[in-house]
Design brief:
Two copies of one chain form a homodimer.
Chain A (H helix, E strand, L loop, with lengths): L13 E7 L11 H11 L7 E6 H7 L3 E3 L7 H10 L3 H9 L1 E8 L2 E6 L4 E3 L4 E2 L7 E3 L5 H12 L8 E11 L2 E12 L5 E2 L15 E2 L1 H13 L7 E5 L25
Helix pairs in contact in A: 1-5, 3-4
Chain lengths: ~260, ~260
């Protein structure tokens, strides 16, 4: 640390985060919590109040949420949507099966509300570049339940907790360029911090009264893991939360509250 | 750190962040860079590759971007919009003066494209709770220029850099509950990381090919500073960027590229 030697170091609020490498390949039926145990231990362990950030792709793979496009027969709806957006109709069929509403379908863009209640491109379905692009990965069916299971398995490493687990995906967003990591599954902590009715120290009414803290933690995970190195796990230390486990549903705006879905 | 004593600690990619307290009250004409110098030094100093995260409110105040509503005369447009959204017409007048387009105006919601090109609620204008709510704070007129000036002043503390500076505000967003910190001014680093054309280690085409890394760093700032403690400054250490200073404009989606503005 670049501290001048004659100055006292004031230690205030601080956070530390690190990437956890060494997980290796994950396949259907694998015990992801167990695969991560040794890497977690050799990368600093876990302490109470830690948050483990997990990229959804390894969760999806362990849960067998992988499909081969060769076995997919597109419906007439999928054919029509595929024609409009300019995508493989079999891919569109999977995207529609993973959705409960289409939000936008335009050339090059297919935004849906997923079966999990998320709003994102392509229902979060990722396409592989290998094997002729035949393999696609879908989001975990119940990411909060996946996060709860991982948390339960890792709790003992964190001396019984508190312990947060955040499962992430990378979402584009309206108005801003650059996708960001967001929390699609949350366990052990609230996904949203609520400051409603509070004022700041100068008496300004809080401009934004609820904060998507789990999304901000997901963002740290992205910065630590990077996009191309295949690191699926990171630990964030130093965040203190208040309130109970909400699940990631607290981050989902209900359609009737969303002026951009009308 | 909760590391079992017989296990080697694997040190991988890691980041550290801390809040910088002790800035005190900031007023019009203050030299913000100078006000922050001593607190920065006593809170760990700065090293090359650090990113300093600054909440926009102290930047706005130092730059005199504060207005009293008592001196504001609402136009007929402001009166009509105020009637629709249910806000003080003088506040709406300031919001419209700070905007170049209205994106949504509905009861309780006024989303604009600001003169800076940002899309957010109320043109980023914050209302004070003190003095009868007469004082409002506007966004810095050119947040990238503000970030560049701060960076220039702090560069010597960071041994000449590289040094990033990110000026933040807290924005709500479509589809998701909970506002998050975003980067409205950036200096010394790219605001967006570009992975276009790359595949991940398993050959998946990158699902999200540009990442809003400066927004993710802004989020760390929010987690460190909190909303009610009046801490305007944080340092993030351990992020390595590639590419040149882009300004926060790289995070602004052009209206013609934005399907949610059509």
């Amino acid at each position: 640390m670049a501290v001048e030697s004659d100055r006292p170091l004031v230690v205030g609020r601080r956070m530390l985060g690190w990437a956890v490498e060494g997980i290796g390949e994950v396949g259907p039926g694998d015990d992801l919590a167990e695969l991560c145990r040794e890497p977690l231990l050799t990368h600093g362990g876990l302490a109470p109040w830690d948050v483990v950030v997990v990229t959804h792709k390894v969760v999806s793979k362990a849960e067998g949420r992988v499909r081969k496009l060769s076995g997919v027969v597109p419906s007439s709806t999928a054919l029509a949507v595929a024609n409009r957006v300019g995508q493989d109709p079999r891919m569109v069929e999977v995207i529609l099966q993973e959705s409960r509403a289409v939000i936008r379908a335009e050339p090059g863009v297919l935004v849906t509300e997923t079966v999990q209640g998320l709003v994102c491109a392509n229902s979060g379905v990722d396409r592989s570049n290998v094997g002729g692009g035949e393999e696609v990965t879908c989001l975990p069916l119940d990411p909060d339940a996946s996060a709860r299971r991982l948390r339960e398995s890792w709790l003992e490493i964190a001396s019984g907790g508190p312990l947060g687990v955040v499962i992430t995906d990378t979402f584009g967003r309206p108005f801003r360029e650059g996708a960001v990591n967001v929390a699609i599954g949350v366990a052990g902590m609230p996904a949203v911090s609520d400051h409603r009715g509070l004022s700041d120290e100068l008496g300004y009414l809080l401009h934004a009264s609820t904060i998507g803290t789990a999304d901000e933690i997901a963002g740290i995970g992205e910065l630590l893991m990077g996009k191309i190195d295949g690191i699926p796990l990171a630990v964030v230390r130093g965040f203190r939360w208040e309130g109970a486990d909400s699940g990631a549903g607290a981050l989902q705006r209900l359609p009737e509250r969303d002026i951009f879905r009308r």
